[in-house]
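Hi team,

As requested, here is the filled-out complex form for the pyridoxal-5'-phosphate run. I kept the field names the same as last time so the parser does not choke. Let me know if anything looks off before we queue the next batch.

— J.
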Amino acid sequence: MNHTPVPLLFEASRPGRRCTRYQGANRTKAAAGLPAGELRDAPPALPEIAEQDLLRHFTILSQKNYAISTQFYPLGSCTMKYNPQVNEAIASQPAWAHLHPLQESGEVQGALKLMHQLQADLAEATGLPAVTLHPAAGAQGELTALMCLRAWLNDQDQPDRRTVLIPDSAHGTNPASCTLAGFKVQSLKTGPDGLTDMDDLKSKLGPHIAGLMITNPNTIGLFEENIAEICELVHEAGGRVYMDGANFNAIVGVAKPGDFGIDMMHLNLHKTFSTPHGGGGPGSGPICVTEDLRKYLPAPQVIENESGYLLATPSLSIGRVRGYHGNFMVLLRAYSYIKRLGAEGLRRVAENAVLNANYLRVKLNQHWRVPFDGICMHEFVARPTKEMKENGVHTLDIAKRLIELGYHPPTVYFPLVVAEAIMAEPTETECKETLDGYIEAMIQIAEEARRGDEALHKAPQNTPVSRVDEARAVKDPKLCFTCG
Ligand SMILES: Cc1ncc(COP(=O)(O)O)c(C=O)c1O
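And here is what came back:
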């Protein structure tokens, strides 16, 4: 056998392995530049493995990933939709991939033009004219907008307005961003219809209010029908309205938040605009704001004048929120998606996202409890029935059983306002056959749960690791390949 030995790098970090000094030929070469005390006496004790075996090792590891490119991924609120391959092909073009963020504006006119047009497209889609492409994620977009809000309040001589109202169904990043930006959070109740409780809102408005953060469609998958009135009330009270646009894929091309009276919002390009989520990144969370807030946006902004495209700092900018000009390669993919679909195509995205979610809801509502069982937007929340709960079946059991049946579970135990929530978002890119497969699996699990099937508590049994103590796994993770 003709093995080409390749050192397996991660083995070097095995516990118990130590680097020792090496006296061999390499020592002389290395000695040219390194202090003697830093040189090895012996080659590193790295295991050797054939290139082909190494390739197999990494290929097999990569196949253990559950990914949108391999299976259905109905993770509610996360919008795990297809990342078009054409975006990847465009992003890998050397003309884009070899750009450097420190190049002079004159050398990167094409890239600046693309960013300028993307800003204009996002402004058009949201009805909010001023856009920054800087923030690296939805959560950073929230923080950026709230920092702009603070700057605006200070300019209005209203620094004591420190309270931001947030519905209790909101994503955890909303209160977290609020606190980071130096505001206090006051929670708003969700009414029995799954929408923001208007009486609660009215009772909490006052001169201490800086603004409201609202997600629309909300995290229950419902459109906040009173949004225009909500905005009016907050404005009358002297505050501004921030919209968490994580669920914009349900309304893109159909409605413009600027028309509801929204002042600021973020977009998760890795949701609505099809860019990859990555492993916790690379994200992109541009924010769009009203004209009067433009001057507070982060620096630099791409602007156009008679000599072309250039970077400029808004007059009262809050400064930088990240390095360079934003996550450019993600912006490029989002731009490609928008241009390929056009306004009509984007509208169809929203229509099909809503259609797919309602198809699932209607097929499953006879088997599961669907607490808000009207027309939903792009996602809906279900939960176990009373009978299932009496059989000791919890949402966690359902999620684990889905894994056993080959599906990534939907989002579970969120939103917090629905106990034992199972929130599924099929996205617009899945076909009927895929949805039918998932429906079948969910119906099968519902039958098992009604029977109180013991197997539900043991699932998944066909995965390398079955149930783990999840709290301990977070606090005391075993990250070492050889830990066993
Ligand atoms: C409703 C909502 N808001 C905010 C966020 C935060 O977005 P990001 O993960 O891009 O920071 C998410 C993420 O899933 C979300 O679902």
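Two things worth flagging: Residues 77-78, 137-139, 171, 173, 215, 219, 244, 246, 268, 283, 285 surround pyridoxal-5'-phosphate (CB under 6 Å). DSSP finds 16 helices and 14 strands in the chain.

Thanks,
J.
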